[in-house]
Design goal:
five-stranded mixed β-sheet, single chain, globular
Length: about 400
């Protein structure tokens, strides 16, 4: 069982008692706004937080004290003076020194387990190749690996565990309803991981998890009023967010795009049609074509990327072709959703400028300018898992402490 979070020690200058607000919902909303502002702008003076959020300076001070008591913010080390006159402005920042969340991402070949700090940075990670994909064994191994990672960070205190996977994942029920490539159906992930870890467990699809990560911690799309994310891996799915809300739909079925028809597609799909989006863009299709072309180790898209980097012309061509088809998929989805920003996770686009150019070449200039690769090319799956828990944290930071519920 993972160790649970202990009440953190209070900072001497931020530990004054804070009166309980008359309206708990308003208090929670204001705490969320303050913490998000500190995340985005920190280290930042409380007066600046007040100006950016529209809250009174007294309210910001109270919320910073409460958040500091929970271990979520702390004063920055060096005071800053405003013009050298008056009292120094002591900035506050997100406290990434002790609290962590666990992340579990289950993909087709392996499970990724990780610990993330409150700024979404991966502080420990491990990859577990599947001996088999029986759900209870996969989840038990993941919990054991999380415990081992925590043992290596004795000062870290875990808040929760986030779980992400492709396929149909029901966030509210905490289940993987269906993952066709793993053969999972109606797997009670929240219940299983919670029993193993003793921590709160939050569950979501990986595309939706990554939309949340981009909005909280990303470089290019953070602050966009609407954001589309297209995930092209062994499974292909999408997620869409507007005004900081990710669209889930009934039973979290939004984003199921596997069988949308893709113009110019030639790959047969198990559904009986030709040119379905997943059949064309799946890493399995890319790797099969690479093997047919004699590219060694072509069972992993990373090997195809490595072969292209080493100068293999067929590998580079296969990656550009896949990127072009991904661009057509982006065009199809943006025609319907018209997002302000588009983030793409696809192996070639993440690592090769020629692939990004090939993708953008399938779009008009205005739309092409909105498309960027993911902000997490080297830690994508680790971030996806942990981001599910961090999204919950930043939506209701006061829930960190049971006494404030």
């Amino acid at each position: 069982m993972l160790r649970t979070v202990a009440p953190p020690s209070r900072s001497p200058s931020l530990s004054a008692p804070v009166p309980r607000a008359a309206d708990p919902d308003r208090r929670r909303t204001s705490a969320r706004v303050v913490l998000r502002c500190v995340l985005e702008h920190g280290p930042v003076a409380r007066s600046t937080v007040a100006r950016l959020t529209g809250l009174s300076p007294a309210a910001v001070t109270d919320h910073c004290a409460r958040l500091a008591g929970l271990g979520l913010v702390r004063e920055a080390a060096a005071p800053r003076r405003s013009g050298g006159v008056g009292r120094p402005h002591v900035p506050v920042d997100v406290d990434a020194s002790r609290l962590v969340v666990g992340g579990v991402h289950v993909s087709v070949p392996y499970t990724t387990v990780a610990l993330l700090d409150p700024r979404g940075r991966v502080v420990a990670e491990r990859r577990l190749p599947h001996a088999d994909t029986e759900p209870s064994r996969v989840l038990a191994r993941a919990a054991d690996a999380l415990a081992a990672l925590l043992d290596g960070l004795p000062d870290a205190r875990p808040l929760a565990v986030g779980f992400a996977a492709g396929g149909w994942v029901d966030r509210q029920a905490g289940t993987v309803v269906e993952h066709p490539l793993l053969g999972w159906r109606d797997v009670a992930v929240r219940e299983a991981l919670g029993a193993h870890t003793g921590l709160p467990v939050h569950v979501d699809g990986h595309a939706r998890a990554l939309v949340g990560a981009e909005r909280l911690f990303g470089r290019s799309a953070r602050g966009s009023r609407s954001l589309l994310l297209l995930f092209a891996g062994n499974l292909v799915d999408a997620a869409f967010a507007t005004h900081d809300e990710v669209h889930h739909g009934p039973r979290s079925q939004a984003g199921a795009i596997a069988h949308l028809p893709l113009a110019g597609g030639t790959e047969p799909c198990p559904c009986g049609r030709t040119g379905c989006l997943q059949a064309e863009l799946s890493e399995r299709t890319l790797c099969r074509r690479a093997l047919e072309a004699g590219i060694r180790g072509g069972t992993d898209s990373a090997r195809v990327v490595d072969a292209a980097a080493a100068g293999h012309p067929v590998a580079a061509r296969l990656l550009r072709e896949r990127a072009r088809m991904t661009g057509r998929a982006v065009g199809l989805l943006t025609d319907v959703l018209n997002p302000e920003s588009v983030v793409v996770t696809e192996a070639g686009v993440l690592h090769r400028p020629d692939c990004l150019a090939a993708l953008r070449g399938e779009l008009d200039d205005e739309r092409a300018a909105t498309v960027v690769p993911t902000s997490f090319p080297d830690s994508l799956l680790a971030v996806a898992g942990g981001a599910v828990a961090l999204d919950v944290l930043y939506r209701d930071p006061l829930a960190v402490s049971p006494e404030l519920n």
